[in-house]
Amino acid sequence: MGGEHFIDKNALLYAPEKLERKPETTITGFLGVDIRAGKVLAVEDFPQMRKPSYKIQVDFGPAVGPLWTSAQVTNYAKEELVGRVVVGTINLGAKKLPTGFVSEFLVMGALNPDGTVRLLDLPQDTLPGSCVM
Known about the structure:
By secondary structure, this protein is mostly beta strands. It is built from two helices and nine strands, in the order αβββαββββββ. Strand 5 and strand 6 (102-103) form a beta hairpin.
């Protein structure tokens, strides 16, 4: 194949054609998930993780405040992330990673077929803490 980049869609876990539609849920179930806008305050390398990752601190506004997460989004430069408005799910419970770091929310993005995360974008003037529906 030389210098060409080739992606075998049949071998990729997140290829859209492999993702079955999920069962229906209720609006009550959906609204039970607390999804909010937040502004990235800090991004740090996280070399202790098995896969390339960052530690990311996001401000979710006055009612929630700043929370930390670990995310495999090293396809973005750290400078590109600081100040960015992201989408986070904040009520899934904290998760202690094997490194001892506690991830407090899930940053949301779309998974490309190769597993690369493309973060969800919101306008820069979105207020931290705004509900995402």
